[in-house]
Amino acid sequence: MSDRDPLHRSIPPNAAPEFYYPGLSPQLLARVKQLWSAQALDFDRHWHHAIRELSSFCAVPRVDIAATSAEVDLVFLFDQCLIWTRALHSAARLGLDHTVEGLTADQWHGLAALSARLTEQLSALRLLALNDLPMPAMQIARSISEDVDMALVLLMRPKLARRFAECRDVEEASDFWRRHIAGGRAYRTISETLYSVGVDHSADTDYAKWRKQVLTILGAAVHSNALSVDVPERRVGAVLLNDDSLHFATFRLHELCAYSLLVKPDLPEVLQGAVASAAGKPGTSGQLAELAGPLSSILISQIASLATPASPVEPHRTAAHV
């Protein structure tokens, strides 16, 4: 067998999730399954439904000489976010279709639309990252970050959610984006709201400077690939050619879960209410929607597990643990 077996054709379709993440940290796997069990959720079943059954699914490449488990751990944590985004969309659709209280109809509409787009973007990012296409992956990661900001803004500003819902064509949607989201406008709104509850993300903080730097790097991917005629070469022992995009996207989804607890109404509680309100009604399915509320707290508990992206100059770095 070669060092890299990207499709793992030998793995049975019903195999446990860990078989698709060769080299995964046993401690991280155990902790994640413990978090799911504490919420009375079947991790294996939901993973197969939300991740394994994706039309774009591919297993993590097998690298027998990987220095640490950090890169595989990162994909595993990223996939948790993808499960949550799919669950969020299912719950938001229930909230919209059944006029569930807690959020306005416009907020449900915006959340459903953005979670659908995030699901597609995360699926695409996963496929690109695992198939060594870092430049387009970076472009998608930047778009994911903008959609996370927009989702938070719609939760914080119901009137803005109404303006978004009133967009009827591409021109109106583009105008909304330029006025309220692009150029850091959404981030400024979020920073102001978080500051009111004691979280300082103003422009002069280390976090704001780091975020700006990362977004600048991701944004540069739109043009930087034209500056070189050479295809990037994989480093020895690497699972991913570039894990920065996966790391930043995972971090932003973790932030969305965490910050949604700091605004009113409490998003996980509202999502659970949507599932409860739609229970038993014709045409509803809670298989994924029921995960949205409890999985929010699970993702927040995984924030400490998100290691710094692997670096070729730090082969001794230990794997991520919870």
List descriptors.
322 residues, mainly alpha, 12 helices, 58% helix, globular, disordered N terminus, disordered C terminus
List the helices and strands and how they pair.
Layout: H1 26-38, H2 43-52, H3 70-97, H4 105-130, H5 134-156, H6 158-165, H7 170-180, H8 185-196, H9 206-224, H10 244-259, H11 267-278, H12 292-301
Helix pairs in contact: 2-3, 3-4, 3-10, 3-11, 3-12, 4-5, 4-6, 5-6, 5-8, 5-9, 5-10, 10-12, 11-12
Order of helices and strands: HHHHHHHHHHHH
Kindly give the count of domains: 1
Number of helices: 12
Radius of gyration, in angstroms, nearest whole number: 20 Å
The multimeric state of the shown protein is single chain
Count the beta strands.
0
Give the biggest sheet.
none
Secondary-structure-based class equals: mainly alpha
Silhouette: globular
* Distance between the amino and carboxyl termini: 32 Å
What fraction of residues sit in β-strands?
Answer: under 5%
Helix content: 55-70%
Q: Give the uncertain stretches in residue-range form.
A: 1-7, 225-229, 308-322
